[in-house]
Specification:
The complex is a heterodimer. Chain A contains 20 helices and 32 strands. By secondary structure, chain A is α/β, with parallel strands linked by helices. In chain A, strand 14 and strand 15 form a beta hairpin. The longest helix of chain A is centred in the first third of the chain and has 18 residues. The N and C termini of chain A lie far apart (53 Å). Chain B is globular and about 40 Å long. By secondary structure, chain B is of the alpha+beta class. The termini of chain B are far apart. Chain B has 6 helices and 10 strands, in the order E-H-E-E-H-E-E-H-E-E-H-E-H-E-E-H. The chains are: A alpha/beta, B alpha+beta. Chains A and B meet through helix 1, helix 6 and helix 20 of A and helix 1, strand 2 and strand 3 of B.
């Protein structure tokens, strides 16, 4: 064997970052001005490795044969689009002209920036700054589809200080003994790493498995990576909350809950009026608990104080307030009653529920129940998430060995927005509220206005309210859009409606490196510099297999110049602003180094850590020992404790007569099970769309490496999966062509269906029979059914889930119901 | 002489396809999604994936498969123009200058491990003879692959083989002593895999990626 290390090859290794899913520090080998190889950084747990997405990105996103290298202009109408090459100047003029028109009319918000994944996006902070200067709209449109309702639920249950770690289910894997993961294609899509790169996650989760942790997958489909786990529970879509409440019921009846944790850190002891379900308060407005020693109510103590409290299981208390005596129960007792009520409604067998509950309960607190990120999401999903969270509270697994873990060493980086005198003053007349990624947004933007009125219609932790933007186009309140690193035309529910709305725009500019669905609707396509041709600083926080907490900073650097005439989005936006006479806000900005150095200064890391240093020397990796201390920040809920009964939901929505959601079970302060509509006939099914391990992001949808092999199951075509027995009843065999028609949910089926335009939409595709699928479900993968004929032929095959999914919106959390679709299937006879 | 080999631990494999992509990149194998215009796929490493059992007690098995470097390769025996040989170190070598792309080797290989590339030449895994570590092993993010000297008693790979934790995949009695797998519970009955109809069908599907044989058996 010839001994030769790759690193000894000719060429130069540079430090940069992957941009194919959720970002990773990465080395890039450049030889003769061309990227020839990539590898992971030599820090835990990349250890020199990257995944297939990072490798394929070079051939499929940096150097693909159909890379968009020049600005393009559409000729013909949007139904028959053709593109010709044009100049940057023409696109800059086109947008500047529109913006001038809108600004002169006093309505800069008629233009919006729609952005998507922060790891694929050019300078997320700059585009928010640009929007603040020009007072335009901006929206993290995809963020809500991705995790917005999770963010709300975690904020409601755990308080905003503790929410982010739990959204992504950061887990102390090396000590975990029992893990139940739902809706996730686990471990393939790797969310339980705190939003960190899967390479890091796969190492530690394999270590957990070898340490003896048992893994149970809850999902309608035995997805591609799920057989890695020990067991699969093929849940019926929409019934997850009943499953979670069934588990909770066993934990309570078998006394497998953590009483000390519930007394000390949750509002389980809080008293609730038996007559109306409202929290009882004293004159000062304090929530009350029962004091067994004095046989009277007292204010709920701050977290960490469990003594002198009771969970009041099976008890009713007579509480005197203002001379009135009221019968009360504890939150814990109320939840126990709810859990018992719904425990038999899950289609999962009681034996299996019992087995799982025992597995979780006996291993507490080193056991977790995680609701997943992808293949759930119905209008009842917010309450489902609440039910999952309460099971975890029963297990007392929050920031405990082997449970969920709070990463405690995160950098306070801010946004890097420049301040006067570096730039003139901006934002006058605007009220800024928190936006995604620590940025600020006007409270008058489409996404924020409903979250800051009294009472709040939607929670401020929502990432976006996507349907309102499409509706604004229909009403003429939004006329021009630039879309970058997002793909609303395929990723938003009821995407046929979305497409019709997009066609009404006066101006649509779409940026990317390769073709995608939005492009055939665009007036201009701009060639954005790829992720290895521009600059961006990133952070990532995670637990590694060295049993330490890591806080890593790394820089995306331009390993090669932008190909062709491509440019970063920030360059284009700055040029537009200059045309509008706003150059003094942009012309002296250094987006390569100084922007990030400002952030490093805010975090007190500069000059020890600099943007240039991160490029020259590689990532900054700060390690800390694991420390369990869930009160490292105050619990910022209304009771100061993790809330089984949400006082926020009670006061803001459920008992608030002014709220849109008054008395809605979808915002019941106690987690509720609300069944979703069911398919009724033999040819009707739930339709669920999942993410394959190597197709998590829009970056991979037009990837000639990743689209080459089967999506899964050694199936050479892009399939619609159907349970074998159900298929045979319909006379279907592998490869048969079928028509799939959306038949629900209708508004009559579900009050939170926003409109029914998707009902009756039809798509065609070929079926693949499988034993690994809940019989009531048909399943497709996100890598299917793309509509643009500019895309790879294979990407266009199959059906588009969102084309067949009605737009539904869950109360308060604005959950998009992205898997809430009932379809009817029939075979298409083919000649020959 | 050392006897280099690969062990794949199917318990650790997360089915991420990194080995497939890295193999293609490192050997400049053409990537193009199979479609109506490009019916054949080019690969040195591919997956055999199949289901066993009935709902809901179904298992899904998944094996990253490449040339196992048979002791007595049938591809050498059947190559009509003797373009395939074994190197001194036992690794199969395809002489691209000689190969006429007839496709007999690919069709006859019981593992479906050879393919005909876009330049009409036979190609297969050679354990990355020009690298110190095969690309698929070096980049596996799950740590599911081991590479080493099977004749070195201190090498981890030889230990797991000797302890019979890692087992060869034997099809049609094609003895091989270089490519081993640590089966997961999804691959119960490893030794009798060859008799499993679902596995046989999955393996047979790989032949769909081959152009028609142009030679004479």
């Amino acid at each position: 064997m010839k001994k030769k290390k790759a690193s000894e090859d000719k060429g130069k290794w540079l430090h940069s970052a992957c941009g194919m899913c959720i970002g990773a520090p990465m080395q890039v080998k450049v030889k003769n001005d061309k990227i020839v190889e990539v590898r992971g950084e030599d820090i835990p747990d990349w250890d020199g490795k990257v995944c297939g997405k990072a490798i394929s990105g070079i051939g499929s996103r940096v150097y693909p044969p159909d890379r968009i290298l020049y600005p393009l202009k559409r000729t013909g109408d949007r139904d028959n689009s053709k593109f010709i090459r044009c100049s940057w100047e023409e696109v800059i003029d086109a947008l500047a002209e529109k913006l001038k028109e809108y600004i002169d009319a006093g309505h800069p918000e008629l233009f919006e920036i729609w952005w998507g994944c922060p790891y694929q996006q050019d300078n997320v902070n700059f585009i928010h700054y640009w929007s603040a200067v020009l007072k335009t709209g901006i929206s993290y449109l995809h963020g809500q589809v991705c995790f917005g309702d999770h963010a709300v639920e975690k904020s409601v249950t755990f308080g905003p200080n503790h929410a982010s770690n739990l959204v992504f289910g950061v887990t102390d894997w090396l000590r975990t003994k029992y893990a139940v993961i739902a809706g996730q294609n686990f471990p393939g899509t790797a969310n339980n790493a705190g939003g960190c790169c899967p390479v890091v996650f796969w190492k530690i989760v394999n270590q957990a498995k070898e340490n003896g942790c048992k893994f149970v997958m809850i999902d309608p489909k035995l997805q591609d990576s799920a057989p890695w786990a020990d067991e699969w529970i093929p849940i019926r879509p929409g019934s997850d909350a009943a499953f979670a409440l069934g588990v909770a019921n066993i934990l309570i009846s078998e006394k497998l809950f953590d009483e000390e944790f519930l007394l000390g850190y949750t509002n389980g002891p809080q008293l609730i009026r038996e007559d109306n379900g409202e929290a009882i308060k004293d004159k000062e407005g304090n929530y009350l608990v029962w004091d067994p020693a004095t046989q009277s109510a007292k204010p709920i103590p701050e977290a960490d104080r469990a003594d002198g409290l009771t969970l009041g299981l099976g008890e009713t208390f007579k509480v005197s307030v203002d001379g009135e005596t009221l019968l009360c129960k504890t939150v814990f007792q109320m939840f126990a009653e709810t859990a018992e009520k719904y425990s038999s409604e899950t289609p999962v067998s009681q034996e299996k529920i019992h087995e799982i509950a025992m597995g979780l309960g006996k291993n507490r607190p080193s056991a977790i129940l995680f609701p997943g990120m992808t293949s759930g999401r119905y209008t009842n999903w917010f309450q489902t998430l609440r039910a999952y969270s309460v099971v975890n509270l029963l297990l007392g697994n929050i920031d405990q060995p082997g449970g969920f873990y709070f990463l405690k060493n995160q950098f306070d980086l801010g946004t890097g927005w420049p301040e006067p005198p570096e730039v003139p003053k901006y934002g006058e007349g605007m009220t800024f509220v928190p936006g995604p990624w620590g940025n600020l947004m006007s409270n008058k933007t489409i996404d924020k206005e409903p979250c800051y009125k009294e009472p709040k219609e939607f929670h401020p932790a929502t990432q976006a309210l996507p349907w309102l933007h499409f509706e604004a186009i229909e009403k003429g309140e939004l006329k021009a859009v630039i879309s970058s690193a997002e793909n609303a035309a395929i990723t938003q529910p009821d995407s046929k409606w979305v497409e019709e709305c997009l066609k009404k725009l006066d101006l649509l500019i779409v940026g990317d490196q390769v073709p995608k669905d939005m492009m055939h609707l665009a007036d201009y396509v701009i060639p954005e510099a790829s992720y290895l041709e521009r600059y961006h600083m990133y952070f990532t926080y995670y637990l590694a297999a060295d049993d330490k907490e890591h806080s890593v900073l790394f820089m995306r650097s331009a390993a090669i110049p932008p190909q062709g005439e491509s440019q970063p989005l920030s360059w284009f936006l700055a040029e537009v602003a200059k045309k509008l006479g706003l150059g003094n806000y942009f012309e002296n900005l250094d987006l390569e180094y100084a922007w990030w150095d400002r952030m490093l200064k805010k975090a007190d890391l500069y000059p020890g850590v600099t943007a240039k240093g991160l490029i020259d020397d590689g990532p900054y990796d700060e390690t800390h020992p694991i420390e369990y201390n869930l009160l490292f920040k105050p619990i910022a809920t209304r009771s100061g404790r993790f809330e089984i009964y949400s006082n926020e939901l009670a006061e803001e929505c459920y008992f608030n007569e002014k709220s849109t959601w008054h008395k809605s079970p979808y915002v019941n302060p106690i987690p509720d099970y609300i069944p979703i509509v069911e398919p009724k006939n033999d040819d009707e099914f739930y339709m669920v769309c999942g993410k394959a391990t190597w197709h998590q992001k829009s970056a991979t949808q037009h990837d000639r490496y990743l689209m080459e092999d089967a999506i899964e199951g050694d199936c050479e075509y892009i399939p619609i999966y159907i349970n074998r027995k159900r298929a045979e009843r319909l006379g279907l065999d592998d490869g048969d062509q079928v028509e799939v028609e959306c038949i629900g949910p209708t508004k009559e089926d579900d009050p939170h269906v926003y409109h029914e335009l998707a009902i009756g939409n039809r798509e065609r595709g070929r079926v693949k029979l499988t034993e690994g699928l809940n019989p009531e479900t048909v399943w497709i993968y996100f890598a299917a059914g793309h509509k643009s004929d500019l895309m790879l032929e294979k990407s266009q095959k199959g059906i588009s889930a969102n084309w067949l999914t009605p737009c539904s919106v869950s109360p308060y959390a604005a959950g998009p119901g992205k898997n809430y679709s009932i379809v009817k299937i029939h075979k298409i006879e083919e000649q020959g | 002489m050392s006897r280099y080999g690969i062990v794949t631990d199917l318990n650790r494999c997360v089915r991420c396809r990194t080995c497939y992509v890295e193999c293609k990149r490192s050997h400049d194998i053409l990537a193009h999604p199979r479609d109506d215009h490009h019916p054949y796929e080019y690969y040195r490493l591919r997956y055999v994936e199949w289901e066993r059992g009935r709902y809901p007690t179904v298992k899904r098995s998944f094996i990253p498969l490449h040339c196992v470097q048979c002791d007595e390769p049938i591809c050498i025996r059947f190559c009509p123009i003797d373009a395939i040989s074994k190197r001194k170190d036992g690794i199969i070598h395809i002489d691209r200058g000689e190969c006429n792309g007839c496709g007999v080797c690919a069709m006859i290989c019981p593992y479906g491990a050879l393919y005909i590339d876009h330049e009409n030449k036979a190609d297969a895994c050679d354990l990355c003879v020009d690298r110190s570590i095969p690309a698929c092993v070096e980049m596996c993010p799950a740590g599911a692959k081991l590479f080493g000297d099977l004749d070195d008693p201190d090498d981890k790979i030889s230990k797991v083989v000797k302890a019979e934790i890692a087992k060869p995949l034997i099809i049609k009695s094609a003895e091989n002593r270089r490519v081993f797998y640590i089966p997961s519970p999804n691959e119960k009955g490893w030794e009798s895999l060859e008799a499993d109809d679902a596995f046989k069908q999955a393996l047979e599907k790989r032949k769909k990626d081959l152009p028609p044989v142009k030679g004479i058996l």
